Amino acid sequence: MGPIPLCVLLSVWALAVAAEVNTLDDDYTWPQWKVPLVRKRRTVQLSSPDFSAHLPPELSGTCGIECQRRLPTPSLDDLEQFLSYETVYENGTRTFTSVSVQGLNEVTAWTRNASSNSRHKREVYGTDTRFTISDKQFSTKYPFSTTVKISTGCSGVLVSPKHVLTAAHCIHDGKDYIDGAQKLRVGILKEKSRRGKGGKGRGGRGKGRRRKGDKGKEEVEEKEENEGNGDRKGKGRGRKSRSRRSAESEKPSFRWTRVKQTQIPKGWFKGVSDGLAADYDYAVLELKKAPKVKHMDLGVIPSVKKLPAGRIHFSGFDDDRPGNLVYRFCSVSEESNDLLYQHCDAKPGSSGSGVYIRLKEPGKKKWKRKIIAVFSGHQWVDVNGNGMQQDYNVAVRITPLKYAQICHWVHGASNECQVA
């Protein structure tokens, strides 16, 4: 599926969220979780990494849902070891931080969900349901603007003004850091400068009016629909100016920012968590400079399949559509405590994308998007633990423990991470 006109994409988007928007039931609100606390115990200096690994095209040997059921439940000591982490700084130095986990018994039960019998092939099968968002006036607006490109070839999502959540395998292959991770950069799609040809005269003032008109609107769909209607109504100079801007910038451009430090859980490393390594395929990058882009908060949900349509959404920079932002949505076919199995059409490059859903805020009628998982990508899964492997698209869920750790990385102070 190639580039889609904005009006068509808006119509499809409206149909995709219709069930969610019309389901004004209090059952579909963001649950409030009391999460455990992850605190620093000790930090030691390590030798500098070699940065000799290469980004794997796909992951193999992942212990799937049935396989994981045969593994013993991790103890508190195990969890503290898995959640301990390495930090790599922009100058190439590295530290290891051990952690303690407090209040784990106070967390609301995180029930294990039964898997279904459905099995799906990965990447693109049948009709390609991905949408290329080629209109920069749309791709640079929330929620798409939260998606970033990682210089190692993956995607990521802004979860704070200065922090990006991505997949750990985009930075580290389990044994060493990826070549290029030492000079890691994050790219954000940028609009054409308003001081250019397209920003002069009435065109520039017109864009100002649209921004003022959008101010105060909480729902993204309302913003997108209003902007779309404005484009259709503007048959004069505004529409001509927009066409000229699109023609002048055929290739999307990025604003690149250096990464100050990278943090990866020890559970991702080879030989630490055995068959649970895929559960820790996430990392957080701290940027040297905060981009002026709205971020998306993290959320914790016990079951995705019980939501309206069980549908998830994410955008990334798929390799087969270079430089373009690619959006998709699909239903989850299976889920475990830590992993989501789905059949969203995807290609390499989308790994690390933020998987989000949309629920109502508690006590309000307003809907809000939150990141509930990190898209890991195509994996060969050991389904039953007998060596027989099957391919899936896999996403790593944000659990209460992972929320506590990521929040700890982002804020530093654990007192800001007690409720999800």
TrEMBL record:
Record's compositionally biased regions (Basic residues): 192-214, 234-244
Renumbered residue ranges of the record's region Disordered: 188-257
Residue ranges annotated for the Peptidase S1 domain, each copy included: 140-181
SUPFAM superfamilies named in the record: Trypsin-like serine proteases (SSF50494)
Taxonomy, superkingdom: Eukaryota
Signal sequence range: 1-18
GO terms of biological process kind: proteolysis
Cellular component, GO, one term: extracellular region
Classification via Pfam families: Trypsin (PF00089)
Record's keyword terms, sorted: Glycoprotein, Secreted, Serine protease homolog, Signal
Compartments, record wording: Secreted
Sample GO molecular function, one term: serine-type endopeptidase activity
InterPro entries: Glutamyl_endopeptidase (IPR050966), Peptidase_S1_PA (IPR009003), Peptidase_S1_PA_chymotrypsin (IPR043504), Trypsin_dom (IPR001254), TRYPSIN_HIS (IPR018114)
Protein family per UniProt: Belongs to the peptidase S1 family.
Protein's name in the database: Inactive serine protease 35
Organism: Echeneis naucrates
